[in-house]
Amino acid sequence: MRYMKANESGLTLIELITVVSIFSIIVLIAVPKTDFFNAKTSEMRLKMLAYELISDIRYVQYKNIYENESLYLTIQTDHKGYYINKPGTMVKRVKTKKFPDGITMYSDNSAQISFSNQGAPIPGGCTISLLNSNKRLDITILPATGRVMIKGNY
Fold this sequence. Notes:
Transmembrane segments: 12-31
Protein name: Prepilin-type N-terminal cleavage/methylation domain-containing protein
Order of helices and strands: HHEEEEEEEEE
CATH class: Alpha Beta
CATH architecture: 3-Layer(bab) Sandwich
Helix content: 25-40%
Keywords: Membrane, Transmembrane, Transmembrane helix
Structural class: alpha+beta
CATH superfamily: minor pseudopilin epsh domain
Largest sheet: 5 strands, antiparallel
CATH topology: minor pseudopilin epsh fold
Pfam family, one: N_methyl
Radius of gyration: 26 Å
InterPro entries: N_methyl_site, Pilin-like
Number of domains: 1
């Protein structure tokens, strides 16, 4: 068994806790504050919702082209989300997406987005806008090809 000699030094538990506490305070001050959880001002959260919307639009388009399943996307009447529906004698809701408070969604010409079996949007292209208090993202669906993209700086 090895014993510590009088001239050897080490850290006591109190010294170690003090150093870790000071280091933690410095790190917390140095890290910039994020507004991710505040949907009204978070640009990152708006981008994430835009990418999810694009993914869902492409899903509806894919189902219409390759699986001949007539899905369509409908913007909620309060502009705080959207639905993916399947038509029939009774409309079947495939997905419901509700946005957090502070984020709204608008379309320039229709509240319903559907695609032909060729992939072109019916009746034509449109632009969907996602807004919070700081930023606006425009998602465009091109009329002839049905290509879905974000316009502007994102």
